[in-house]
User: Fold this.
Amino acid sequence: MIDKLCKKIKKLQAPIVVGLDPMLDYIPPHLIEKSFNEYGETLLGASEAVWQYNKQIVDAIYDLIPAVKPQIAMYEQLGIEGLKVYKRTVDYCKEKDLTVIGDVKRGDIGSTSAAYATAHLGRITVGSKEYSLFDEDFATVNPYLGSDGIKPFIDVCKKEGKGLFILVKTSNPSSGEFQDQEIDGKPLYELVGEKVAQWGEEHMGENYSYIGAVVGATYPQMGKVLRNIMPKSFILVPGYGAQGGKGADLVHYFNKDGLGAIVNSSRGIIAAYKQDKYVKFGAENFADASREAVKDMIKDIDNALKTAL
Amino acid sequence: MIDKLCKKIKKLQAPIVVGLDPMLDYIPPHLIEKSFNEYGETLLGASEAVWQYNKQIVDAIYDLIPAVKPQIAMYEQLGIEGLKVYKRTVDYCKEKDLTVIGDVKRGDIGSTSAAYATAHLGRITVGSKEYSLFDEDFATVNPYLGSDGIKPFIDVCKKEGKGLFILVKTSNPSSGEFQDQEIDGKPLYELVGEKVAQWGEEHMGENYSYIGAVVGATYPQMGKVLRNIMPKSFILVPGYGAQGGKGADLVHYFNKDGLGAIVNSSRGIIAAYKQDKYVKFGAENFADASREAVKDMIKDIDNALKTAL
Assistant:
């Protein structure tokens, strides 16, 4: 899976991933109205609008990008109907040959972490049968509980040829409250990064490990340090665009081979039609606006990498 | 909700919570067989067996205990059908007047944390209607992302009169990898504990805060320190029984009023019929074994508290 991701990034010259984080107020009014007419002002109605929104965006951009990152919280907040649409989105994106990173940020210990790993990356045995569940290709995982929380995920990843992105340094303003605290002169995120590099050795692809890291675009100096600490780990980089990160800030998240990082944009792509820059498309053509925004993002990062590497 | 929990703990003299973490291999064969006959060896069949198992246990113990803590991972690993049973379990326990702590260990930032908070503790607006989703009374939350991750949960808790238990020091062997690291001579878990105490001031009940902490039974010395750091925070204590914690180890998690902590046992109660001590009940009467195990746990903790306080 990590090798497939590397190949696709190279082929498309697009180290990017689009976050499918459908907040209800991103969805154009005509989709909401149509869905409410059909299913009522219900959780089903809202979830169907999310599905139509996702599907049209994916249809418009799937040939330009290697991967998507659905944020499960946006579906979980619509309960069971929302989670059905999460699963439908994962399946549809895989049909379109997109790598799916489930942004689930799960994390627990022992058999509970194993259950989460089964839910998102593995299969469960029921009597004499076996079933896969949400079945993403990668999942994001929280490291606060230490190795006991991560190892059960790695075991499932090894069995299934899947991977992880472990939170190291997150993109939000308060991420430093705990992550930047110094331990023997070294911030916690470096310690977590060292662990990610160690864990990564257990499950290597051709050039990169299946066990990657999350490092926010908003902390480029820390990204540079972490790139060196985890040379074989792919870095998933949130915080581009809406959160303030620019292509030029991100060059140090990459290795000299032009790989090693994949930059996420969510709102900046899926709600592009709301930005001044793309408002000309109109809400009806929101998916075309998303396509244009994807092209611009690829160009921005490509230019930055060409200048730097 | 925290005041209700305090009252019920006092009334029942039972500062305990039963973890509804139904691993498939805990479920007695007769329940599995019946469910497979009816629904096949399917995710629905497995989920229905989980539901019957939960229901019979809850029916047998609800009058003895103030609270339950369903572990969502065990349901999530059965996909959509499993999550329906999670919701059914939450609703059923609330009907039985039990406080429900959703052990979901969610954690993200900003609007994403808000979405998780909505999913588990809040309500979502769909057109002109409002819906509650999983609707637990409390949720467990991971602090690694700092205040940006916690505040959106607290906002929803304030609005809904609900609460949180934030991971501080977890019960697993490797929890020290990051949580015990010293920052200016103080371990990270103390720093997180101080933050929990601060966050807790924002949402106080009568004597205790709605914002509590998770501190494992397996680290009693740290529990004692954390009790002092967070005098107004309820401590949810996992790790009793199967993980090795005993009543006598836990007295320092409590305040002098006999409150301030709630001790969880999962496997030790719900799979009691598998222990030598309760094997006489037989698998058919697994729920009676659970009731006996609850009584023994209450006695163990009550004796320890009487001796110590």
User: Anything to note?
Assistant: Chain A has one domain: 2-308.
